[in-house]
Amino acid sequence: MNYKIFSEPFRNLITAQVRKIIAEIDSQPDEYFDSVPIEEFSKYLKSKYTLDEFPTLIWEEIEMKIGETEIYGRDFPSTFDVSNPSEKFKRKLVVYHIPIYGNVGLLRFSPTNGYSTSGIYGKLAIRNDTLDVSFIDIYNQPEKVDSDFDRTKNAIAGKLNVVRGEYEYYHKELPKFIDGEIKKRIQKINHTNDYKSKFKYPIRKKEVPTAFESPRIVKKKKISPKPVGASNTVTNQRFITDEDYMHILGLLQDCGNNWEHHPELYKGKGEETLRDQLIFVLAPNIEGVVAGEAYNKKGKTDISIKHESTNLFIGECKIWKGPKGFLETIDQILGYLTWRDSKAAIMMFVPNQIISGVRKATEESAKGHPNFVRVLDVINEGWTNYRFHIESDPRTYVTLAVQLYHLPEL
User: Fold this and answer.
1) Which site in 31, 168, 311, 369 is 20 to 30 Å from 296, CA atoms measured?
2) CA distances from 127 to 5, 137, 202, 311, 372 (A)
3) How far is it, in rounded angstroms, from Cα 237 to Cα 71?
4) Domains, the chain, ranges and CATH?
5) Residue 302: left (phi > 0), alpha (psi -120 to 50), or beta?
6) DSSP state, 43?
7) Using an 8 Å Cβ cutoff, are 71 and 123 in contact?
8) What is the pLDDT of residues 42-55, one digit of tens each?
């Protein structure tokens, strides 16, 4: 899908989100709030209305394309002496291609206040996961085109930083807003119940279900692999979308959280048993082939989700034994990956009584690994997504999630 960059203020998105949240809270029957844990409903709403990852433009991976185009004489600046405005002239068309990582759709939003197109000289277009900045070289001066692109680049980066600030503020305020709206609804219900209690005759009860269930935070989801390449290219290669990847990681994280709250589920169990529990969580929730101990390139991966013969996701489960073992696990999983695999995860079981030191050690070790490229996201204190390049090709990148599960009674 194509988007027009900076076409509407970010406020429009936030306003729409707020309306949806309030509507969903208000749509629940009064009895719902007596039947489910409020924290669970709040968690569900926070998960549902969290926006996808903010897009990042990978400026260091810019590629150019130079071709030709035709323009009418009437479109030249007034400084040109063109006798026939309808005459066409050939000029060089210079296009800068900037890769985008994250939710491309968010690029259509501009800063809410004080937005202008000043400083943007080229024509902007988003195609798939790339921002194209095009210039017609009217003066036949490549140096001027490069200079105009640099100014455009700075203007785009500045505007995106402002939008990112609004994006981060939304997520900072989201939990407080949701909890506040739930509290308002409960107060309204209590006020209504108090009013009803003042009548001496019984109030006719509504016909409602005998039991309510909160919306499931984890929902069954079909993993739909997407073909690699342009739409007119026939290919058997497939990849997993960021949305599906985060869904899988969310299922794993929920299982880890459950262990942390209920030690009896993991106490006395080994690495393989815990891995099997993760597979048991994934299998019924994903319409794909979920396998344990699956062969992949140099060995057997603990968890593998496949589409036909293609790996969409691979994961390794390990008990924390220090930075050296963690680095060996990164080496191991990168060694498993081929150029067709783009997403993987390490699920680290931490038996230490204090986990803060382990968090710091994993972060420092990951950044010190020779294949490390950058940190993509810190989802929470025990879950970080990194970008690495694969073992055999420094220009082929993969996403590697690291999740820590605090299991001191392991």
Assistant:
1) 369
2) 11, 22, 63, 26, 28
3) 40
4) 8-176 (no CATH), 238-406 (3.40.91)
5) alpha
6) H
7) no
8) 888 888 888 888 98
DSSP code for 116: -
| Residue from 88, 106, 148 nearest 1 by CA | 106
Q: How far apart are CA 54 and CA 69, in angstroms?
A: 34
- Give the Cβ contact number of residue 306 at 10 Å: 19
Rounded to whole angstroms, the Cα distance separating 252 from 244 reads: 13
Residue 134 contacts residue 125 (beta carbons within 8 Å)? yes
Centre a 10 Å sphere on the Cβ of residue 353 and count the other Cβ atoms it contains. 8
Q: Burial code of 4-36, b = ≥16 C-beta within 10 A, e = fewer?
A: ebbeebbeebbeebeeebeebbeebeebbbeeb
| Residues 218 and 254: beta-carbon distance below 8 Å | yes
Q: Is 65 helix (H, G, I), strand (E, B) or coil?
A: strand
* Whether 97 contacts 135, CB under 8 Å: no
Tokens of 136: 């017609």
pLDDT tens digits, one per residue of 174-212: 999 999 999 999 999 999 888 888 888 777 765 544 333
pTM given for the model: 0.51
- Beta-strand pair 238-239/226-227: antiparallel
Let me know: does 324 contact 365? Beta carbons within 8 Å. no
Residue 343: name the closest of 256, 193, 232, 223 by CA.
223
For the record, the structure tokens of 74 come out as 């009437």
